[in-house]
Design goal:
By secondary structure, the protein is of the alpha/beta class. Helix content is 48%, strand content 14%. Strands 5-6-7-9-8 form a five-stranded antiparallel β-sheet, covered by helices on one side. It catalyses: tRNA(Cys) + L-cysteine + ATP = L-cysteinyl-tRNA(Cys) + AMP + diphosphate.
Amino acid sequence: MKLYNSYSLQLEELKPIEPGKVSMYVCGPTVYNYPHIGNARPIAVFDTLKKALSAQGLDVTFVSNYTDVDDKIINAAIENNASEKEITDKYIEAYNEVRNNLNADLPDVAPRVTETMDQIIEFIDKMVKNGSAYVVDGDVYFRVSSDPKYGELSHQKMEDLMVGARIDENTKKENPLDFTLWKVTEKGIKWDSPWSKGRPGWHTECVVMIQNVFKKPLIDIHGGGLDLKFPHHENEVAQCEVCNHTHLANMWVHNGMINIDGAKVSKSTMTEEQKSKLWAKDLIAHHGGNTIRWVLISAHYRAPLNLSDETIDTAKKELTKIQSAYKQAIVKLQLVNFKNVDSYDEDLWTKFIDEINDDLNTPNAIAQVFETVKILNQSLRVREIDENKVASLVNALEKMMYVLGIKLDHITLSDADKATYQKWQVAKKEKDFAKADEYRTILQDKGIL
């Protein structure tokens, strides 16, 4: 598989550090509210990536964290007269419900910041002691100048960043680019540390959790939304460089942002009313998990994705076309009591996986799905159906849709269903339209037709 590496700005072949095994970490949400549709895109993208790698025999360890300490979480706890854990538990559950409804696997490991605090404090202390961090009035800042490579991931020069930095005359930082590793906390949950009673800054947690879970400073893939590339991922790299002399991941993979009705949106510019209409849970409840997942993978993961009534309607029509062909095929195979086998159309599967392996090109992979559906429909229209061919096409289609994270509705016919179907065929042949309509209605009600 080749993936676009944001660090090198090139397509690169994935070469696992440990042959046959892939270590992948994706930045998870800050759990203070329900997941927005923008949070759902990396769920679909990186789940598709994991499924594609697994389908080719690789052992993938997928890790995604929960940021369960943050000012917004603390404020939500105060507003709701609840503990921070009550708030975060609620929204972690909501996030996992969205993940499940999008047919995505749960992470193999899902660490929480609050459960990794000892290691975070130890890591920050290491940076203080090696001079890459400094303490001011109980706060700890990372000294950006300690990493001469700073800016390499986001491809920005230090001097350009300095020009664009907002300088606060009252800042305690040596350099406006320096970022917080630990801060004194006046309210909400806090921990004892060598510097003060407080909590960590945002940028340290992922570095620590990666090392804590994988037991090594360098992994194969680090993923997340494009908005995390700078400063979050840049700051992760800097900390790993000064402590471990490596940039944390061999491949940095970033998904593009979501546009709404063709316009760029962000949480900072959206009204509360707009946000409330774009909760992932509500879109899934209204349109179905398959439909929203299909929309999320319909564009190349690095490209902007447009969410609109039109794209949702298109997704529904496309899925209906696929499901219809699939249903017809499995019904006809069952009507002749064909025992399905494990073989699949290897040529079509290879073409599909070749597109997936080309930088996770889901639009082209979807085109291969429709080519398979086309051939399947043609195979069903002949007078004498080749059951082995139809079964191999069905199996190939199932494998493709599994990688794309789409659940196909599988209908199992009972003996009574088969009898009704045969009666319907006889009634049509004998032009007994009343009986034919009666049997057709029964079959339609059961979803067979």
